[in-house]
Specification:
DUF397 domain-containing protein; alpha+beta; 62 residues
């Protein structure tokens, strides 16, 4: 799948307190793609679903 075909979305929490400070994700079965919502053509990060789950779990505990 090319990155042009990805379905990007933001968290429902991203419209709270700091509307310009959020990221977008585009999950696929093997990769979670991550980008800055303010710079959608800029650099992107791709991680495995296990890595994404570990990150979200870590962030939720903070």
């Amino acid at each position: 799948m090319s990155t042009a075909e990805l379905h990007w979305f933001k968290s429902s929490y991203s419209d709270s307190g700091e509307p310009g400070s959020c990221l977008e994700v585009a999950p696929t079965p093997t990769t979670i793609h991550i980008r800055d919502s303010k710079n959608t053509e800029g650099p992107r990060l791709a991680v495995t679903p296990a890595t994404w789950t570990a990150f979200v779990t870590y962030a939720a505990d903070r």
